[in-house]
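re: that chain from earlier
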Amino acid sequence: MTSTGAEGARAAYEAGVRRRTEALKALDRQGALLAHFRTVAFLAFAGLVLLVIFEKVSRVGLLGALACLAGYVGLAIVHARVLRDEAMAKVLLALNRRGLARLDGKWHDFPERGSELLPEGHLYGGDLDVVGQGSLFQRLDDTGTKAGERQLADWLLTAAPDAATVRARQEALKELAPQLGFRQALIAEARLAGKDKADPARFIAWAEGPSPLDGVRWAFPLAHVLPIVTISSGLLAANDVITALPFWVGLAAQVGIVFATRIPLGRMWEALMLGERGFIRFEQTFQAIDAQQLSSPLLRALKAGLSGGPPVSARLKAFARLMGFAELRSSGQLHPIINALTLWDVLFLFRLDAWRAEHGRGVRKWFEALAQLEALASFASWPFERPEDAWPQVDDGPVHVEAKELGHPLLEAPVTNDVSLPSPGHAWVITGSNMSGKTTLMRTVGLNTVMALAGLPVHASSFRVSRVQVMTSMRLKDSLERGVSYFYAEVQRIKTLLETAKAHRERCFFLLDELFMGTNTKERQVASRQLLLLLLDQGASGAVTTHDLSLCELATERPAQVKNVHFRDQIIDGEMTFDYRLKDGVVQTTNALEVLKRAGIPLG
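^ sequence. v structure.
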């Protein structure tokens, strides 16, 4: 990455860090003051109640107690908003610091690696650093939910279905790249769910699930009438207008309703909290989507999927408001008293259940659209931070990969090379000394191809590729648990690649590193030769690295299809050096003995 290309992104991230740091200081001061005022209001409420009970003040003191209680509730609402703003500022600060870490090459320490999202036996994900430590996923993942994370991994591990989809994503990324504020607002709400990313599956399960309140629906209308009668009679009794009997009868009836409804309401609350903890208050995220003017076809389509009735943000705001009232249930200080006096749980849990009945069937669609927007927002950080990278040209034709000045996208200062595999049935046989760059070149071509087919820019001056199926055999290992040797693991892998090439004729792009190392030289030479011919006959194209120079003879036998290229090392002033530049032909030197010698292993 050039310093010029990253300059604008760095300035934006640094400004974000300054703003959020200052905001956090101010919010911390506000929160401390509100916490003190809340404590005073609660102590005043409790003190006045005790004074009335012990007849130290008249019953009129109950009005003062109610005023203190109202003040406590009001302060609690304001304090909750301040705490939420503080949490939001912390998330935005973390996102800006994360951007700076990417620019400084420190993204390898990010905890999100996506290893668990890689299907067993995937055709390329494990070989090309798509997921895992030091992977493309680790660098890109700015998603805020588990659904967004899964969507991001899916786009990297599965090529877009056609070139039109790739172009639609490219247009969306070009629009989103400069919209840093929108992208961060889009995902920040999800980060407020807790230490782990929120999983919409929990919220969707609650929204689409059955109601546990059907058997106690009789309590809901009573909750609108009985507390008013009870509290009114209590106030009248306190002023000696009537006797206290109606108040105590009403209170006893309400306590009976609390006990009669406690099990279904408890089930409702348990299911609600499981979902709400997994996906908390996204009204502001969807409000940001509603407010943002989007012009690319894909972004417009995603936004259109959120229409149909009131805005999603308004519907979720209604949910958040009801949830805010219902959360009094979690207050150990006041909940039992207020619930007994007002039937609070019945009033607000039934209202939440009504919200679920009205809007629950649309929740899945909302968060599927959000997941795609999260993945696009994560993708957009790449062109924002690396505007010098090229937008690839992708088509639906037969397999071809052609690039100019192609470099590994995850290296800070990669050496670049040109690559040309112009049509089906073409292959490069790559030879070279140890550590000269053979495998790195294949990962460079493979990972850039994966990025191109996902809709991302690539590290090249130009890149043309068809919608291919990438397939690799590079990082095989034996498995003691499965009882599989290295050689048999490779045989299984090769079988899969051949079946894939047959099923997707003239559509496959293969990258094979040092074939059949688990067998003897003679059999390895025969097997490698036959495998390469089988792949070429299926119209697949790609590259293979080898130390067996006999494989290079295919370039003489099939000059129109097979090309020999190589890397080499040089000894300069007694030091072994590599230029990592690709050259035509077969390597003429080796360095294995020299490497052993320099490692302190004398071989005579």
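The chain has three domains: 1-104, 145-387, 393-598.
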